[in-house]
């Protein structure tokens, strides 16, 4: 276990030693502040309390998803691109443990960006909107945390997909590009397939990543879908993605790289 901790620490150092990571963090901060300024002084949305703004800021998790995909899609493939994979594999740790450390680092990056978004939105809302207005129960702090929890499901699944592509094809650009394309086009793809009466679309990953309808009394996309069904599908996809990543990373020869 101690060796895994050291591997995770090493991966965290790699992530935060790169200038792009700090650019990502800065963009998250600036996006929240810009959203607050626009809401208060430009658009005039009538927000009078920090909690409604924090709820509004949950929409910025799309930025977190994109940045996480960049990290997840690059964390394995970059080792092959830069030729550092051989140096990594001469360590006494097994390949499986190295892969696990990389995946844990991706999850920690997701958590870092999400918590930072939550904290920055609170202080931005506090400075710009204050705590004086009425708050709807739908925008209470527990409701905001629930929204973040649901968003995390989508972020983790998209990042795991990018991670698998990174390990399978050893191409950062393919992993990042394909994952972002699927993330942005998934709703359209699902709606088109539904309009064509393709009932098997309910087994599509991105038809199940949004669990909010089940928890807010909404209708599922298709008959036969339920919270238990969607969770089962997501778990199955997660197992598949990580199993493919593990199999190709641990079993494939790297002598030619």
Automatic annotation (TrEMBL):
Sorted UniProt keywords: Membrane, Transmembrane, Transmembrane helix
Protein's organism: Paenibacillus solanacearum
Annotated TM spans: 21-43, 55-82, 103-128, 148-169, 176-196, 227-249
Domain of life: Bacteria
Protein name: ABC transporter permease
Classification via Pfam families: ABC2_membrane_4
Presence of keyword Transmembrane: yes
PANTHER family assigned: INTEGRAL MEMBRANE PROTEIN-RELATED, MEMBRANE PROTEIN
Lineage, uppermost ranks: Bacteria, Bacillati, Bacillota, Bacilli, Bacillales
Claim: Transmembrane is one of the keywords in the record: yes
